[in-house]
Design brief:
single chain; alpha+beta; Ribosomal Protein S5, domain 2; 2 domains; 25% strand
């Protein structure tokens, strides 16, 4: 189970009053625009295409591993070449155009993310929600999906594994 910090009524009152001031006063002396010190390093996991570890000053640590593989893109129009040519004609307005550009769409299933937190099961609502929240944030502007697109036949599939300590 996740560790929770229990505060007394006096501690809660102090935190509320000090953080409500203008400018707020934090218990550790940081200003409202200062981040906690952190360290980050990359390339720490040998069996991945990319990895990183981020350590915060309070002892919190997160490790992320990324694996990528090429997958065949499912053709939403089927394998019928004639239907594809008709699609290209209608999409471009004439008889040509860049078919790959016309068919490019963000596909959420190209990115699979799992979050692991010690003491919680993989199917715990909190970890599943956090994984989905992070996945949606990565796909929100569509830029990542564009980078996953190779051509009309293939795309990259990313597997992101996040472990918090």
């Amino acid at each position: 189970m996740a560790q929770q910090t229990l505060l007394s009524p006096a501690e809660l009152a102090y935190l509320h009053s000090s953080l409500s001031l203008s400018p707020p006063i934090r218990p550790d002396g940081r200003t409202s625009k200062q981040f906690r010190p952190l360290t980050a390093e990359t390339g720490i996991l040998p069996g991945t295409n990319g990895s990183a570890r981020v350590c915060l000053a309070d002892g919190t640590e997160a490790i992320v591993g990324v694996k990528a593989e090429i997958e065949k893109t499912a053709d939403p129009l089927g394998d019928d070449g004639e239907r594809y040519r008709e699609y290209v004609k209608s999409a471009s307005g004439v008889g040509g155009g860049d078919a790959d550009e016309d068919r490019r769409e963000a596909r959420g299933e190209w990115l699979e993310m799992t979050v692991e937190i010690p003491g919680l099961r993989d199917d715990d609502a909190g970890t599943v929600f956090l994984a989905e929240l992070l996945r949606e944030a990565l796909l929100a502007d569509g830029e990542l999906a564009k980078k996953l697109w190779i051509n009309r036949r293939f795309h990259w599939r990313l597997y992101l594994d996040v472990s918090a300590q």
